[in-house]
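Severity: low
Component: inverse-folding endpoint
Summary: output formatting inconsistent between runs
Steps to reproduce: submit the following structure tokens with default settings.
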């Protein structure tokens, strides 16, 4: 069985980090994905979907330091569902993407670089394994540097 989700979208807000009593960290942010289509009257329609994203430990720390509202990012992870009771006692269910890979898909400003002992100029992505991924505009390591060659 497989539970895998891949998203490319823009951050809706700056990442927010929480540190728990045991020292582990979790970051949360929203991601907007957009889709355009023609309706039955041949008019273009735009549909924006909002996704709740969370990441843990090293990935959370990197996301908090390096991602900002509006950034275009590539996310891989799994869908999770969490139940809770609201203030009125009504049970609610929240869908979240538990990210295992986050990669920035934008070029950095001149002189801007990642912060941290494993970073070097040109690093733009990171995964939960802690390994940095090289590249400036490709969605995965080894993908073409020219955006025109990307299949999406």
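Observed output (run 2 of 3):
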């Amino acid at each position: 069985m497989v539970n895998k989700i891949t998203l490319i979208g823009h951050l809706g807000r700056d990442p927010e980090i929480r540190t728990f009593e045991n020292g582990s960290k979790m970051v949360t942010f929203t991601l907007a994905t957009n889709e355009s289509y023609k309706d039955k009257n041949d008019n273009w329609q735009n549909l924006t979907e909002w996704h709740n994203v969370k990441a843990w430990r090293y990935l959370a720390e990197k996301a908090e330091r390096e991602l900002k509202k509006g950034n275009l990012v590539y996310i891989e992870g799994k869908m999770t569902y969490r139940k809770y009771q609201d203030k009125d006692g009504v049970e609610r269910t929240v869908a979240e993407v538990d990210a295992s890979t986050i990669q920035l898909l934008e070029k950095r400003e001149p002189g801007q670089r990642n912060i941290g002992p494993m970073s070097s100029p040109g690093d733009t992505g990171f995964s939960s394994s802690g390994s940095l991924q090289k590249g400036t505009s490709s969605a995965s390591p080894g993908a073409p540097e020219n955006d025109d060659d990307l299949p999406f």
